[in-house]
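Lab meeting tomorrow. Look over both lines:
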Amino acid sequence: MRLVELSVTNFRSLGDVQGIPIRKQTILTGHNDCGKTAALDAIAFLLGECSVVDSDISDFAMGEPARAALPSNEVEERRTVIVEGRFALSPTEEKALDAGPTLRMRRRHVEGEGSCLEWRTAVPQNPTLRNIPALKVAELRALASELEISLREDQTNVKASWVEVLEEHAAGTEMVTDWVVAPESVAAALPQLLYFKGDAAESPEAVVRSILTAKLREYTLREETRQKITDLEEEFSSLLKDDVVRLQKLVEERCTLDAFTVDPSVQCRRSTVFP
């Protein structure tokens, strides 16, 4: 997943900045206090690398949708920071996330409430059907009763069954495109932000090491990699069990100790060594 466009609303000096293109090489220029650092921090907020506090909310918003996020004289509204990104997906990501070649995501911080990550996707027009797994069992039963939906004969009266029948019903209803809370699978696919500042206190070697460590973490989280690691752990554990049998016999022959048992297990942990 690669960020290709950024929009920022109500964040520090960025009142309403829309459609900033992000390329493989993108240069931000401008005088001091014009918003360069704010733009980088907005990206960090979008990707979940930093948080936003109420004092970060802009007082310079102009026009819609920025003005709509500021308090109104007639209706007291909570001010909101919105950082939206358009992301390009690889074919593998398209399949995994059941999405198209591009994806829109945003992170919102509502004054006094906190932040949440959302994505724009096809959802049921009925808002009550948009986040079924988050409902409690009692809420699921009440919703099913309201919609006159019941469990099938082969289903047990548990949460998973109610979620299944309600999601099947939701899939057959009228759909719209809207912003909803992003599922964990989408949040996990966000790219990682790494700062490489020329005037940073860290040495270039330390920054390079952190980048490579982050990539290694990404590789170890892949499903196919985890399976290989699991296979190695099981293989080493099996080999050690053979050694344990020989060790037990040796102890019984040479030592006057009671019988003992050992059940070895191996767990591979990431350790990074870069010259």
Q: What stands out?
A: The mean pLDDT is 83. The two ends are 29 Å apart (CA to CA). The helical segments are 36-46, 91-97, 137-146, 159-171, 184-188, 204-220, 223-254. The chain has three domains: 2-125+177-188, 128-173, 222-254.
